[in-house]
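Duplicate of earlier report; Division plane positioning ATPase MipZ input re-posted below.
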Amino acid sequence: MAHIIVVGNEKGGSGKSTTCMHVATALARLGQRVGAVDLDLRQRSFARYLENRRAYLDRAGLDLPTPEYRDLPEGEVQDARLTQAVEELDARCEFIVIDCPGSHTRLSQLAHTMADTLITPLNDSFVDFDLLARVDPTTGRVKGPSIYAEMVWGARQMRAEAGLKPIDWIVVRNRLGTQAMHNKKKVGAALEELSRRIGFRVLPGFSERVIFRELFPRGLTLLDLKDTGIDQLSLSNIAARQELRDLMAGLRLPGPMGGF
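Output:
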């Protein structure tokens, strides 16, 4: 069976689609067969990223490893549509990457119950931290889990009742500041405290970089630059590629995960 990676966060602008694209393409570059599904039926950022990639590679005459995208089949029953798409990809893929919308939907809730690995990108601020937990405004102490964490807890219970293996939940801190700012330390401490209480791992993700905005229109990732003849070996881009390598190592995904 394919290993299902769900990228979810009920707030927009956290870097879900960028994370999806880079993780999926990194796996494809490692020789894995990767399926892709976008559950944000309105914005379709992950789907558009992959469409841009196919169009760019066709224009440039290039053949680079690319995830296999699958639209949800037609139908009125949302559960059946997602289940069918996953079953079709499962027949020929080692991994399936599912991008969830920045809001609570039935499809997103169902996808979380399917997750072997759940990645929650989080902007490094207490505005986004509020998605996971309620914080005492005076002491800064975590008071308890919030709406999204409770939804993940429900998904974990459903998997346990079905006899499935537990979800490996990873919270990825995106847009980390380059300086050891006071707020950054406070967010980090709160995440570590909450991780012990509700069971997730914390990994550093991607810093805020211009390169990510430039890659999307061509459907490229940090790992594609050398193969396209537009390699930009700035210190920022080298650091960004190392962030991706560190993230892939930290995910601890099954199968051969050599260098790329």
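DSSP finds ten helices and nine strands in the chain.

Merging into the original ticket.
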